[in-house]
Every structure is written in C-alpha cells, then in structure tokens.
Design brief:
This protein is 33% helix and 27% strand. By secondary structure, the protein is an alpha+beta fold. A five-stranded antiparallel beta sheet has the order 1-2-3-6-7. The protein has a two-stranded antiparallel ribbon with strand order 4-5. The structure holds zinc ion.
Length: 171
C-alpha cells in the first residue's frame, strides 16, 4: 500500500480546487483506506484528499466520540446556520498551530458514500466545524484564510522560520 505524505502550508497543491469524483471503484476504496491510515497515524480527526496531493473532492473523518470513520465523497454544504461559533482549530497541514476560526454552528452536508449512494448529514458544534474545515480544503482554503489578519501573519512567519531552520539542519 502506498504511504502518502501529508502536504503542509506552502505546498501549492493545498491551494488547488479539487475535482468531482466520478468513478466509485476499487481504486477509490483503496485511496480512502490509505487516507484513513494517514489520518490515524497523524492523530487527526479529518483528512481531505488534497492534503496528500490528490485533487479529488473527498475527505475522511473519524467521529471524536463514537470513533467511527467515514468517507464523504463530493460533499456540499446545503444549509448553514446564521449562528456562528468561534473556536480553536488546528490542521494536519499547518502542524503545530492552533488558531481561532469562526464557523457556522450547524451545517447540513450532502455527499456520496464509497458506493456512490447519496447521504445527508446534519452536524452541530465540533462536527459542524470538521465538516466546514474539510470542505474548505477541497476548495483550496486553509485555516489561515479564516482567522484574523494578525493570527495569519503570526502563523505564516513562524511556519516560515521553522521551515528555514529545518532546511538549515538538513544541509
Ligand atoms: Zn486541515
């Protein structure tokens, strides 16, 4: 099984818009199995395909309380509450940072499962946050785009400094 690497801030692939999935085949199933492995190894609660460099509209996530994993293919937010909630949010592609991100408190997502069957999922609070975060990835949007200008500057500066230090060490 191919082991994928999680792409991080600065990698242009994270800024691409992903394309609709049209083939619900064994290849798709294998991809999602790999994605769940990568997500679990990194101890994340969600992972979008673009985070491993695959520009397809799908994400995997693990329910924080039931611990059950799910795959949402071609997900779309069809309803979102006016009410917003601000909360600290991290991202496997922005490792080591947590920033305040306002999100709709409740969303309804329509997607397909691995067999291409339509599903509808209503999420509140943390689950609503996960849905919005992962669907953002499919449009090339990251938490740094959703936080305050000040937080964004801090993350970009510290992330760049950490990368430069790493490159220096590698030399
Ligand atoms: Zn993320």
């Amino acid at each position: 099984m191919t082991m994928y690497e999680i792409r991080t801030l600065g990698d242009p692939v994270l800024r691409e818009r992903c394309r609709e999935v049209t083939q619900f085949d064994r290849k798709l199933r294998r991809l999602t199995e790999s994605m769940i492995e990568v997500m679990d190894a990194a101890e994340g609660v969600g992972l979008a395909a673009s985070q491993i460099g695959i520009l397809k509209r799908l994400f995997v996530w693990r329910h924080p309380t039931s611990n059950k994993s799910s795959v949402f293919v071609n997900p779309v937010i069809v309803e979102s509450s006016q009410e917003q909630q601000s909360g600290a949010e991290g991202c496997l592609s922005v490792p080591g940072f947590s920033v305040e991100v306002p999100r709709a408190a409740r969303v309804v997502v329509e997607a397909c499962d691995l067999e291409g069957r339509p599903l509808r999922f209503e999420a509140i609070d943390l689950l609503a946050r996960i849905m919005q975060h992962e669907i953002d990835h499919l449009d090339g949007t990251l938490i740094v785009d959703r936080t305050s200008a000040e937080e964004r500057r801090r993350v970009l500066r510290e992330h760049r400094a950490a990368r430069e230090a790493e490159e220096h060490m590698a030399r």
